[in-house]
Design goal:
It is built from 3 helices and 5 strands. The protein is α/β, with parallel strands linked by helices and 106 residues long. The chain has one domain (11-87): 2-Layer Sandwich (Transcription Regulator spoIIAA), CATH 3.30.750.24. Strands 1-3-5 form a 3-stranded parallel β-sheet. Strands 2-4 form a two-stranded parallel sheet. α1 packs parallel to α2. The longest helix is centred in the N-terminal third of the chain and has 17 residues, at 19-35. The chain is globular. The two termini are 24 Å apart.
């Protein structure tokens, strides 16, 4: 999820993605994907408010896209988003970070 889909510009989610905006943002994302199915790039660089509801929405979106063979890319993340991802042990690809002390599975 490091590279963007060059055929579609990044969707800017605005200044907030919290429980207050989650439902409306979800509908906006569904409408966008209905018009432009496939990979989705999000710009989270302007997010100044972000909570676990916003994170849950992103995780659900990533899972849904993966089921369709598509990819979610986070092009920019505000420091707040990066901090929240770190608190939950996630990278910008919304996958769990490998803890340094965990032995590698073979």
């Amino acid at each position: 999820m490091d590279s963007s889909d060059a055929s579609s510009p990044a969707l800017d989610l605005g200044p907030a993605l919290t429980i207050v905006e989650a439902s409306q943002t979800h509908m906006r994302l569904l409408e966008h994907l209905a018009q432009q199915p496939g990979n989705l790039s999000l710009d989270l660089g302007e997010l100044a408010e972000f909570d676990s509801a916003g994170l849950q929405l992103l995780l659900s979106l990533r899972a849904g896209l993966e089921q369709q063979g598509a990819r979610l890319t986070l092009l920019r993340c505000s420091p707040l988003v990066d901090d929240a991802l770190a608190v939950y042990g996630l990278g910008r690809d919304l996958q769990p970070l490998r803890a340094a002390h965990q032995p590698e599975q073979q």
